[in-house]
Amino acid sequence: EVHLVESGGGLVQPGGSLRLSCAASGLTVSGSYLSWVRQAPGKGLEWVSAIYGGGGTYYADSVRGRFTISRDTSKNTLYLQLNSLRAEDTAVYYCANHQPSGSWPMGHWGQGTLVTVSS
Amino acid sequence: QSALTQPASVSGSPGQSITISCTGLSSDVSGYKYVSWYQQHPGKAPKLVISDVTFRPSGVSDRFSGSKSDNTASLTISGLQAEDEADYYCNSYTSSNTPVVFGGGTKLTVL
Fold first, then answer.
1. What are phi and psi of B101, to 5 degrees?
2. Partner residue facing B51 (CB), from A35, A50, A105
3. For residue A97, how many other CB atoms are within 10 A of its CB?
C-alpha cells in the first residue's frame, strides 16, 4: 500500500526559503511520476511541480525559477525547495503520485503540510 | 484562471442525481484529452473518484460515473447522499511543459 507523508511546512517571512519533504512507502520515488499540488486557504487545487520517473522536471509558471523539485532515492523521499517566498505561496502543499494510465491520475495523496508566508 | 472550467456550485436533494461539467478539453492528442475527477472533504486530502474519463477506482461507490463529449467531461453522482457533500475537481494531463491542470472546483451541497 502506498503512503506519502509530507513534512517541513511552517511560518516563513517573505523572501525566505523552506524545504518540503514527502516520505514515500509502497513505491520507489526513482521510478515514479510524482507531483506537488497546493491549495491556498479557501481556494482550489493548484498543480505546482512534477518529476517524471526518468527525471524530467516541470513547473507551473507561478513558481518556475523559485521552486525546485528533487528526489533522494536512498531515502525514498521527494522534496520541494521553496525560495523567494511570497505571501501568495501560503497554502497547504500536498505530494501525490500519478498512476500509469491515459490520464495519469493522482491515485495517492499525502495529508499535506501548511506553508505560511508572513512577516 | 484555470484552463478547465467548472461551475462554482451545484446542489441536489438526497436521492437525486447531479452532474458537474468540466469544459476546455481538447480532442487533439497534444491537448487535454484525458480527465480525472477528485473529491475533497473540508480539511482532507483529495481522493480520486474517476480516472481516464470513465474508470472508477476500487472502493469508489458505483453511484459515481464519468463521461465526455467533445471538449466537455462530466461527473455524475446518482442517489445523492449527505456524505457526497464536498468539493469536486476535474484534472487533465497534457504532454506540454505544464503537464497537469485542474479545474477551478465545484462545491456540491446536499440539501
1. -140, 145
2. A105
3. 23
| Radius of gyration in angstroms for the set of CA atoms belonging to chain A, rounded to a whole number | 13
Grid cell of B12 as nine digits:
441536489
Q: Which amino acid is at A46?
A: E
CB A108 within 8 A of CB A4: yes
CB contact under 8 A, A103 and B53: yes
pLDDT digit string (tens) for A49-93? 999 989 999 999 999 999 999 999 999 999 999 999 999 999 999
β-bridge mates for residue A76, sequence order = none
Is B100–A99 a contact, with Cβ atoms under 8 angstroms apart?
Answer: no
Contacts 24+ apart (CB under 8 A), A65-70: A69/A36
pLDDT tens for each residue of B33-57: 689 999 999 999 999 999 988 999 9
Q: Closest Cα to residue A63, out of A100, A117, A23, A24? A: A117
- Please give the grid coordinates belonging to residue A85: 517566498
**Nearest C-alpha neighbor of B63 from the set B48, B50, B76:** B76
Tell me if B105 sits within 8 A of B88, measured CB to CB. yes
